[in-house]
Specification:
By secondary structure, the chain is mainly α. Helices cover 99% and strands 0% of the residues. The protein is rod-shaped, with a radius of gyration of 58 Å.
């Protein structure tokens, strides 16, 4: 009976040692799990920050695209306005050149008419002089 009790005591001691070993392992695992949990929380925080920054970048991109579109429309409008102004200047210049040509043509015609009138006056003087000369003779 003593040997049976002794065996049971030894078995109980071995079980207690195994239990203590398991407790130590459990504590180590718990510490390890807490460390891993802390690292995961840090990673989650980093990820949330990155997602927040990414969202901010998306909003800024949209804002920038809208501003670019607005500026592009303004530039297009300015181009159209300038094109219209250039076309208007070209039209005015063409009209002015046409008027100059017309005036130049009128001036040339007037000079020709003046020359014709002078020739006609010269002929009339010549006729009068001839008539006076005949009358005197």
């Amino acid at each position: 009976m003593k040997s049976c009790v002794r065996r049971e005591k030894v078995a109980v001691e071995e079980l207690q040692k195994e239990l203590e070993v398991e407790r130590v392992k459990g504590k180590k695992n718990e510490v390890k799990n807490e460390r891993i949990l802390g690292e995961l929380e840090k990673e989650i925080t980093k990820r949330e920050k990155v997602e927040y920054m990414l969202e901010a970048v998306r909003h800024e991109k949209i804002r920038t695209e809208k501003r670019f579109d607005k500026l592009q429309r303004e530039l297009d409008m300015e181009h159209v306005e300038r094109k219209g102004i250039v076309e208007e200047y070209e039209r005015v210049i063409e009209e002015f050149e046409a008027e100059l040509e017309l005036e130049s043509g009128k001036h040339i015609q007037a000079e020709e008419r003046q020359k014709e009138l002078e020739k006609e006056l010269e002929r009339e003087r010549t006729k009068r002089l001839e008539a006076e000369t005949r009358a005197i003779s």
